[in-house]
Design brief:
InterPro entries: AAA+_ATPase, ABC2_TM, ABC_transporter-like_ATP-bd, ABCA, P-loop_NTPase, R2_ABCA1-4-like. The chain is 50% helix and 15% strand. With 1153 residues, it is α/β, with parallel strands linked by helices. The chain folds into 6 domains: 1-119, 3-Layer(aba) Sandwich (Rossmann fold), CATH 3.40.50; 157-229, Alpha-Beta Plaits; 359-444; 483-743, no CATH class; 779-1014, Rossmann fold (3-Layer(aba) Sandwich), CATH 3.40.50; 1025-1037 and 1066-1131, 2-Layer Sandwich (Alpha-Beta Plaits), CATH 3.30.70. The strands form 8 sheets. The protein has a 6-stranded mixed β-sheet, with helices on both faces. Helix 2 (23-33) packs across helix 3 and helix 15 packs across helix 16 (413-419). The radius of gyration is 46 Å and the shape is elongated. The two termini are 49 Å apart.
C-alpha cells in the first residue's frame, strides 16, 4: 500500500490546501510525502512551478490565492513527485477558457509515462484530453471508447452552418443539399444562420455537395458556410437517451427528428418514460404591459411580497428568530434575580458590640501575682471568656504585655490582626493602695476601643458587686438625613446601573441581529435582483423596517412583562411601564436606521453580527460607566460628565437607551424623597428649622448638596428622559438620511471624486483617443456603430429592444468600458464574450442600473436608463452570474415574489409560475426550499426569475454554469422558445458551444472595447485559421499488408513493380501509421501533427485557401487506398477565435502592470 501511495497523485474536486503554507511549501511537503529523492526535490518543484506558470505565486500563501490559482496548485500537488497514477476531479472548474486551455496544454505534456484519470463536466475537455472516454450513470459505465469512436457511434454526423443574406431562399438550399445527401435534415433556421445535420456515413458525398455550394454561393444568397463534427456533448446526450430518467428536473433531451418547419424548440416531458419534449406556449400566459399594477396598487403588492418574504425567512430560520426574541428577556431575568439578593440603601440597624463578633481571639492580660487584688481582677477578667476565645496570663514584673504583643505580631502579622483584638493590665499602686486597670485594643478593628472598655468595665463591676450583672454596649447610628439619602442614592447606584446595563447588553444582540438578513441579501445580489425587478428603495427599506420593528417590539414587550412580574420598583406600575414602552418605541426609530447604515461596512453577515454586538456592548456600556462615575459629587468633575453625556447621547443610540433607563429608575427613587407636598411647602416658604433638613430637595436653593429630581419624567432636564427621546428622533432622521446617501452610492461617488479630483469630458476623450490609435476597429463593429449613431431613435426603437450609444465607464484613470455602441434586435440573442476584466460585468451593471454611467446612453424599449431608471428596470430581466436566491424560500415562493415585484396581477401569477417551471423543467422541485436545490436547478430558477413577467430584454450571465450537458441543452431549448416569443436575450457565457447554439450575433470584448461582431459562423469564417483533421488508422492482419502497399504505389504513381519482397518484418500497424503521416504531409503541406496516441492522429491544417470539398475529396481517395478506419474534419472553433482575442487582453494586462 505504501508503494501505491508513493506513486499516486490526487487533485480533489474541492481544494484541500493549508492556508498558512506557500505554493512552494505545499509542493515540497507533498513531494517529500511521496518519498521523492531528496537531492531532486527542489528541481522537481521548480519544474512543476514553471510548467504551471506559478512562478509569480511561488512565495504566496494559499489563503491569498484566487480560485483559479488554487486549482493550478492542486493539480501541481497531484503531479509533483513523479506520480505514475494521477486522479484529477474536475481540475479546471471555475477557470475561464484561456486558463482552462493553458492547463490542458500542461496535462498534455505531463501525461507521458503517467496514467491520468480525469472527471469533468466540460465535454470539450474530455474530447481534448481523453484518449478514452467513459460515460457513467447510476454507478455504471454506459459506454467507453476513443472520442472518434464515440462520435461515430452516437453522433448525428456533421453540422452544416450557413450564413444567409436577406433575400435567401431556404427551400432552394434544402433541395440542393437533399439532392446530394438524401439523409440530411434541417436543424434550425434562426436569424441569419441556417443549420443542417449531415449523416457521418454519407461523408463520401460531401465532396460534391461542397463543390456545388462553393459554385452557387451567390445564386443561393449565402455569404458563407462551415461544417463541424459531432461534439462529445451530443454523444453524452445520445447516451442519455438510453437511460431512464429518474429526475426530470435534472435531465432533458431534445428531439432528434427535425423538419424544415421544426424550430427545434422543445421542453422536457414530465414522463420518465420518454424523452420527447413538449412546447410551452408563452403567449398564452402573456399579458399586455398596461395590465400591470401601477401606483398604489403596485406599492401595496410589492410591500406585501417583501413582508411575506421576511415572514417566511424568519419562520424557516427559527433559530435566529428565537434568539432575537429570548436573549433580551433572558438576560433581564438573570439580572433581576441577582438584584433581589443584594441589599438596598437603608438606615443602619443597631449593632451590639462584643468580642464574640470576631469568632475566636486570644486575650492577653497581665497581673501582679504578689498582689491579691490584681490577681482577683485578672481571674474575673479571664472568666468572662469561653471557647473559642482564649486568655493568656502574664506577670507584670517578669513578662511585659507590650513585649508579648510585639512578639506575636512578628510571628504572623495577619493572624495577629485577626485574633488579637483586646488586652488588659492590672497593676497595683503600692503608695496609694490602688490598682490601675489599663485596657489595650487593636485599631485594625472599627469597634475595638468600645469593646476593650466594655470588657474591663464588666470586670470592675463584678469585682464590686460580685454578681452576674454586666454592661452592654450598642452602636446605633443616627437616621440618615435627606442629604445623606440623596448622596447615597447618587453614589451607590448599583441597581439602576445593573438594570440599564442589562438592557443595553441584550439590546446589543437584538439590534445587531437585524443586520444579518440585509447583508445576506446584498452580498448574494438578491437585493440588486429585486431592485432590477421593479422594487424602489422606499418599498424595500419600508418593508424591512416594518418587519424588523415588529421583531424589535416583541422582546421589548416581554421586558415590560418581566418588570411587572418582578414588581421592580419604579418600573412596574402602568404609568411607569408606559414611559418605558415609549422609550423603547422611539429608540427603535433610531436603532434600526443605525444598523441599516452599518450593514454597508460588511460583506459577511456573521462578521457584522459579532462586530456590531461588540461595538454596542463595549462602547455603549463603557461610555455609560464613564459618565456615571464622573457624575459622582465627591469627585468634583461633574462639569466633564455633562458634555460627554450630550456627545455620547447624540452619537450612540445604545448609550442613550441605557442612560434613559437609568434616569427613569433614579428619578423614581429621588421622587420618593423629594416629591412630597410638605417638602414643597417648606422649600417654598423656607420654614426654619425644617428648611435645613429638606434643603437638598429644594431646586435652586440647595447650595452645594442637591438631589436631582424631576416631577415630569419626560423633562428635558436630567434625570428626565426628554433629552434622550429628542436625541432618538434626531438620530433617526440623521441615520435615515445617511442610509439614502449610501443607497445612492454617494460615498462611492465622493471617493471617486477625491481620487481623481474631477473627471472632465476632455480627459475621457483623450484616453479614448489614445486607445483608438493603438487598436484598429473591426469593420463589423464600425458598421454597427455607424448604423446606431446615424439612425434616428424612433427607427431604432421599432426594431431594437436594446440600444446602447457610446457607453463609457471610467474609474479614475481606468477606462473600464470604452464607447460601446450596439443594438439588440427584437427576438435576437446577443452574445457578450470576454475574459475577466474585459468589461462585461461593468457593462451589465450599467445597463441594469446597478452602476452609474460616465457618459453615453442606454435605451431599453425606448426608455433611457439615466432618466427613467425605474421604468427601464421594470422592462428587463436579469440572471446574475451567481445565484441571487433566498435559501429559505421555495421555488414557487421565489417566483411568486418576483412576479409581485414586477406588478403582475395576482390572478395571472400562478399560471406564470407553472409555465416557467415547466419551460425550464424544474416543476417537480417547485415546492422545495432553494437550499435543497442542486446547482443546475438553482440556475434554472434564476433564469425563471429573469423571465418572469415577460420582460422585453433578458440579461443572462452564464445561465448554464454547473449544469450537465443534458440539462444544458434543455435550457437552450427553453431560451430558444423565449426568443421565438419576440423577446431579446443578452448572454454572457464561457461555453462557446452555448453561444453557437443560442446567439444569432455576438461580440468579443477586449479592454472595454468590441474587437469583433457578427454571427458565430461569420466570426469563424473571418478570424478562423484552417481546419482540424482527426484520422483513425485501422488494425489488420499482416497478410493484407502487401495488397495495401501495392495499392498505395498505384495511387501515388510511384515507379516500380508491386512486389512483396521488401515487406518489413516489423509491426505492420506502425507502417500504416507512417504511410498515413506521409500522405497528410504530402497532401496538406502546412499540416501540423498536434497529437498522436496509438492509432489516432490529430492534425491542424492552417491553410485558409483550402476548401471543404478539396479536403473531403482527398480524404475519401486516401480512405480507399490507405488503412484509414475513420476520419473527421472540423473548422476552427469559436473558442479558438475567442482565445486569439484573449491574448490581446492578456498582453494589455501585462503592459499595464
Amino acid at each position: 500500500m505504501d508503494s501505491v501511495h508513493s506513486n499516486l497523485g490526487i487533485c480533489p474536486q474541492h481544494d484541500v490546501l493549508f492556508d498558512e503554507l506557500t505554493v512552494e511549501e505545499h509542493l515540497y511537503f507533498f513531494c517529500k510525502l511521496k518519498g521523492y529523492i531528496s537531492d531532486l526535490v527542489q528541481s522537481e518543484i521548480d519544474r512543476i512551478i514553471s510548467s504551471l506558470n506559478l512562478e509569480e505565486k511561488r512565495y504566496a500563501r494559499a489563503e491569498t490565492l484566487s480560485g483559479g490559482w488554487k486549482r493550478r496548485l492542486s493539480v501541481g500537488i497531484a503531479l509533483v513527485g513523479g506520480s505514475r497514477i494521477v486522479i484529477l476531479d474536475e481540475p479546471t472548474s471555475g477557470m475561464d477558457p484561456f486558463n482552462r486551455r493553458s492547463l490542458w496544454d500542461v496535462l498534455q505534456s505531463e501525461k507521458e509515462d503517467r496514467t491520468i484519470l480525469l472527471t469533468t463536466h466540460f465535454m470539450e475537455e474530455a474530447d481534448v484530453l481523453g484518449d478514452r472516454i467513459a460515460i457513467m450513470s447510476n454507478g455504471e459505465i454506459q459506454c467507453c471508447g476513443s472520442p472518434l469512436f464515440l462520435k461515430k457511434k452516437y453522433g448525428a454526423g456533421y453540422h452544416l452552418v450557413m450564413i444567409k443574406e436577406p433575400s435567401c431562399e431556404v427551400s432552394m438550399i434544402t433541395d440542393l443539399i437533399l439532392s446530394h445527401v438524401p439523409n440530411a435534415e434541417m436543424s434550425s433556421n434562426i436569424g441569419s444562420e441556417l443549420k443542417y445535420v449531415l449523416p457521418h456515413e454519407s461523408s463520401y458525398l460531401f465532396h460534391g455537395l461542397f463543390s456545388e455550394l462553393e459554385k452557387k454561393k451567390e445564386e443561393l444568397k449565402i455569404s458563407g458556410y462551415g461544417a463541424s463534427i459531432t461534439t462529445m456533448e451530443e454523444v453524452f446526450i445520445k447516451v442519455g437517451q438510453k437511460l431512464t430518467l429518474g429526475d426530470v428536473g435534472e435531465e432533458c433531451v431534445p428531439k432528434e427528428s427535425f423538419s424544415p418547419d421544426d424550430s427545434g424548440i422543445h421542453v422536457c416531458s414530465d414522463s420518465p418514460d420518454t424523452f420527447s419534449g413538449r412546447d410551452v406556449d408563452l403567449e398564452s400566459i402573456g399579458y399586455q404591459p398596461e395590465s400591470k399594477n401601477v401606483g398604489i396598487y403596485l406599492f401595496s403588492q410589492q410591500l406585501f411580497a417583501l413582508l411575506e418574504k421576511r415572514v417566511l425567512h424568519s419562520y424557516r430560520n427559527w433559530k435566529l428568530t428565537l434568539s432575537q426574541l429570548i436573549l433580551q428577556p433572558f438576560f433581564l431575568i438573570l439580572t433581576l434575580l441577582i438584584l433581589k439578593s443584594l441589599p438596598k440603601p437603608h438606615d443602619d440597624p443597631p449593632l451590639q458590640l462584643g468580642i464574640q463578633a470576631f469568632h475566636g481571639t486570644e486575650i492577653p492580660y497581665a497581673v501582679n501575682k504578689s498582689d491579691d487584688r490584681s490577681k482577683i481582677l485578672g481571674e474575673i477578667f479571664a472568666s468572662q471568656y469561653n471557647d473559642p476565645d482564649k486568655t493568656v496570663q502574664l506577670n507584670v514584673d517578669t513578662d511585659g504585655l507590650i513585649q508579648h504583643l510585639i512578639h506575636e505580631a512578628k510571628q504572623d502579622i495577619g493572624k495577629y490582626n485577626m485574633h488579637n483584638i483586646v488586652g488588659a493590665v492590672f497593676q497595683p499602686e503600692n503608695k496609694k493602695n490602688q490598682t490601675t486597670v489599663t485596657t489595650l485594643f487593636n485599631n485594625q478593628a472599627f469597634h475595638s476601643p468600645a469593646i476593650a472598655l466594655l470588657e474591663v468595665d464588666n470586670t470592675i463591676l463584678k469585682y464590686f458587686i460580685n454578681d452576674n450583672q454586666s454592661f452592654s454596649v450598642v452602636n446605633h447610628p443616627l437616621p440618615r438625613t435627606l442629604a445623606a439619602k440623596g448622596r447615597q442614592q447618587q453614589i451607590q447606584t448599583t441597581e439602576a446601573y445593573q438594570i440599564s446595563q442589562d438592557i443595553m447588553f441584550g439590546m446589543s444582540f437584538l439590534i445587531a441581529s437585524f443586520s444579518i438578513f440585509i447583508i445576506k441579501e446584498r452580498s448574494s445580489n438578491s437585493k440588486h435582483l429585486q431592485r432590477v425587478s421593479g422594487v424602489n428603495l422606499f418599498s424595500y427599506w419600508f418593508a424591512s423596517f416594518l418587519w424588523d420593528f415588529l421583531n424589535y417590539l416583541i422582546p421589548c414587550c416581554l421586558v415590560l412583562l418581566i418588570f411587572y412580574g418582578f414588581s421592580t420598583e419604579g418600573l412596574s406600575s402602568a404609568e411607569e411601564l408606559g414611559r418605558l414602552f415609549l422609550l423603547f418605541f422611539i429608540h427603535g426609530f433610531s436603532a434600526l436606521p443605525f444598523v441599516y447604515c452599518c450593514t454597508f461596512l460588511f460583506l459577511s453577515p456573521s462578521t457584522a453580527y459579532v462586530r456590531l454586538s461588540l461595538f454596542n456592548i463595549l462602547v455603549g456600556i463603557a461610555c455609560l460607566l464613564t459618565v456615571t462615575i464622573l457624575e459622582i459629587p465627591d469627585l468634583g468633575v461633574e462639569y466633564v460628565a455633562k458634555p460627554l453625556d450630550y456627545t455620547f447621547s447624540i452619537l450612540i443610540p445604545n448609550f442613550s437607551l441605557g442612560r434613559a433607563v437609568s434616569n427613569l429608575y433614579q428619578n423614581y427613587q429621588f421622587n420618593k424623597f423629594c416629591n412630597k407636598k410638605e417638602i414643597k411647602l417648606v422649600c417654598d416658604l423656607k420654614v426654619p428649622p425644617f428648611f435645613e433638613l429638606v434643603k437638598p430637595c429644594c431646586k435652586g436653593k440647595c447650595d452645594d448638596i442637591c438631589i436631582p429630581w424631576e416631577e415630569n419624567y419626560l423633562s428635558l432636564n436630567s434625570p428626565g428622559i426628554g433629552k434622550q427621546l429628542l436625541f432618538f428622533v434626531l438620530q433617526g432622521v440623521v441615520f435615515t438620511s445617511l442610509l439614502i446617501l449610501c443607497e445612492m452610492n454617494f460615498l462611492r461617488y465622493l471617493r471617486y471624486k477625491i481620487k481623481s479630483h474631477k473627471i472632465r469630458p476632455s480627459s475621457i476623450s483623450s484616453v479614448e483617443d489614445t486607445i483608438e490609435k493603438d487598436v484598429i476597429e473591426d469593420d463589423d463593429v464600425r458598421a454597427e456603430k455607424l448604423n446606431i449613431l446615424n439612425t434616428s431613435l424612433v427607427n431604432l426603437f421599432a426594431t431594437n429592444h436594446l440600444v446602447v450609444r457610446l457607453l463609457t465607464k471610467q474609474y479614475g484613470s481606468l477606462l473600464a468600458v470604452n464607447k460601446l455602441t450596439f443594438g439588440v434586435r427584437k427576438g435576437e440573442c446577443f452574445g457578450l464574450l470576454g475574459l475577466n476584466g474585459a468589461g462585461k460585468t461593468t457593462t451589465f451593471k450599467m445597463i441594469t442600473g446597478d452602476e452609474s454611467i460616465t457618459s453615453g446612453d442606454v435605451f431599453v424599449d425606448g426608455s433611457n436608463i439615466k432618466k427613467e431608471s425605474r421604468k427601464v428596470q421594470s422592462r428587463i430581466g436579469y440572471c446574475p452570474q451567481f445565484d441571487a436566491l433566498i435559501d429559505q424560500l421555495t421555488g414557487k415562493e421565489t417566483l411568486t415574489l418576483f412576479a409581485r415585484l414586477r406588478g403582475i396581477p395576482e390572478l395571472l401569477i400562478p399560471d406564470q409560475v407553472k409555465a416557467l417551471s415547466e419551460l425550464l423543467t424544474f416543476e417537480v422541485h417547485i415546492n422545495k426550499q432553494v437550499k435543497d436545490y442542486s446547482g443546475g436547478n438553482k440556475r434554472k430558477l434564476s433564469t425563471a426569475v429573469a423571465l418572469i413577467g415577460n420582460p422585453p430584454v433578458v440579461f443572462l450571465d452564464e445561465p448554464t454554469t454547473g449544469m450537465d450537458p443534458v440539462s444544458r441543452r434543455c435550457m437552450w431549448n427553453a431560451l430558444l422558445q423565449v426568443l421565438e416569443s419576440g423577446r431579446s436575450i443578452v448572454l454572457t457565457s464561457h461555453s462557446m458551444e452555448e453561444c453557437e447554439a443560442l446567439c444569432s450575433r455576438l461580440v468579443i470584448m477586449v479592454n472595454g472595447k468590441f474587437c469583433c461582431l457578427g454571427s458565430p459562423q461569420h466570426l469563424k469564417n473571418k478570424f478562423g485559421k484552417g481546419f482540424t483533421l482527426m484520422i483513425k488508422v485501422g488494425r489488420r492482419p499482416i497478410a493484407s499488408f502487401c495488397q495495401m502497399k501495392n495499392a498505395l504505389h498505384t495511387v501515388t504513381d510511384i515507379a516500380g513493380s508491386s512486389t512483396c519482397e521488401w515487406l518489413p518484418t516489423g509491426n505492420p500497424l506502425l507502417q500504416d501509421i507512417d504511410d498515413v503521416k506521409a500522405f497528410v504531409e504530402r497532401t496538406f503541406m502546412s499540416a501540423t501533427l498536434k497529437n498522436a496516441h496509438e492509432t489516432l492522429l490529430h492534425y491542424h491544417i492552417p491553410n485558409p485557401q483550402l476548401t471543404w470539398s478539396e479536403i473531403f475529396r482527398s480524404m475519401e481517395e486516401a480512405k480507399q487506398s490507405l488503412n484509414i478506419e475513420d476520419y473527421s474534419v472540423g473548422e476552427t472553433t469559436l473558442e479558438q477565435v475567442f482565445l486569439n482575442f484573449a491574448l490581446v487582453q492578456r498582453g494589455a494586462d501585462i503592459l499595464t502592470l
